[in-house]
Design a protein that fits this description.
alpha/beta, Peroxisomal Thiolase, Chain A, domain 1, 7-stranded mixed beta sheet, 2 domains, 6-stranded mixed beta sheet, 352 residues, 12 helices
Length: 352
């Protein structure tokens, strides 16, 4: 079987195994409905660091060290680390991984970075270039607001459709071989991916992330269904990364216009990480960490526990910068689709 499917997709001949995963989040995320699924919850946004940026580097380091430890591996056994964040020059990631001494590939896909990192790491495993690889993404509410919008001390009003950047880091360790499991949990693999192309619908409002990213999510979803000859019904659920309430609604309308009804097969990580009424995050959650910690916390536990068999994970990203916004540019966006399923489900699919 060839590895390439259609124009944008890849199917893995030897699906990389997700050996372990780890999630570290801030206090607001720890107060939300997914609190029981996270590995570590900070008591405050800085966690004792001197700055928000240094705190985000701590998120990165903690989640990676935890996932390596949970995999029963040493740092020396990780051939590649593929990771990124939202800050200029991937500052949080670079300083967070500098002491790990693992060969590093920095990725920037804005809030789609976890999908990009997992996809590239999976290619390295399936291609025979590594036995083990780590993939990670992070974000921090305070660092993102400071860089992309206004300083927190300014006290500006946020429109109701604005999303709240998640403070958190999620990481996974991928491997070539299935580990021996004695805990009864399902083995979970990455079986394929569809790489997105940049989509720009001309939106210029830096607060309207969901509206800007929804068309990119629709584009990669359509490409995935075409390349894999699948429909929404082939997945227990499709999870986009951080469209929030308004972007998720727009995505469903866009897909309906293309003949696909997502109702009953779709959720957005940004709509489930916070309690809508109690936490008042306006448009829901966003940021690299939104999809990363929802996957490594909530979704992986559902997959390992047999509650989900196959999901389509589609982190979404807005590729703007402070400079492009100041110059009146629109917001180009991208999304990447990753097929994640249990090993048993994968085998059943192969027989069908």
């Amino acid at each position: 079987m060839g590895k390439m499917l259609g124009k944008q997709s890849v199917i893995f001949e030897n699906p990389p195994v997700i050996i372990s995963e780890a999630s570290v989040v801030g206090p607001k995320e720890g107060e939300g409905p997914l609190s029981d699924f996270f590995d570590t919850i900070w008591k405050d946004e800085k966690n004792g660091a001197e700055s928000w940026e240094k705190a985000e580097s701590q998120l990165v380091q903690q989640s990676l060290e935890m996932s390596i430890q949970k995999a029963g591996l040493s740092k020396e056994q990780i051939r590649y680390l593929v990771a990124g964040d939202l800050l200029n020059q991937l500052t949080a990631t670079h300083f967070g991984v500098r002491e790990l001494n693992i060969p590093f590939i920095g990725t920037y896909g804005a809030c789609s970075t976890m999908g990009l990192s997992m996809g590239l790491a999976s290619m390295l495993i399936d291609g025979g270039f590594a036995d083990y690889a780590a993939a990670e993404a992070s974000s921090h509410f305070c660092t993102s607001e400071k860089q992309f919008r206004t300083p927190l001390g300014y006290g500006s009003q946020r429109p109701l459709y604005a999303t709240w950047t998640v403070t958190g880091s999620g990481s996974v360790i991928l491997g070539r071989n299935e580990p021996e499991r004695k805990d009864g949990r399902q083995t979970v693999v990455v079986s394929g991916m569809t790489t997105g192309a940049i989509v720009d619908y001309g939106i210029k409002d830096a607060f309207n992330m969901g509206g800007a990213m929804a068309p990119a999510a629709a584009a990669v979803m359509l490409a995935h269904f075409h390349d894999f000859s699948r429909t929404p019904e082939d997945y227990d659920c499709i999870f986009t990364g951080d469209l929030g309430y308004y972007g998720a609604e727009l995505l469903q309308k866009l897909m309906e216009e293309e003949g696909y009804l997502l109702e009953g097969h779709y959720r957005d990580c940004g709509t489930i990480i916070y309690a809508k009424e109690e936490q008042d995050t306006h448009g829901g959650g966003s940021g690299c960490g939104c999809s990363a910690v929802t996957l490594t916390g909530y979704l992986m536990k559902k997959l390992r526990g047999g509650k989900l068999g196959r999901i389509l994970f589609i982190p979404t990203g807005a590729l703007l910068s402070p400079l492009s916004s100041q110059q009146g540019e629109s917001i180009p966006c991208i999304a990447h689709a990753i097929v994640i399923e249990t090993k048993g489900y994968c085998r059943m699919a192969e027989r069908s």
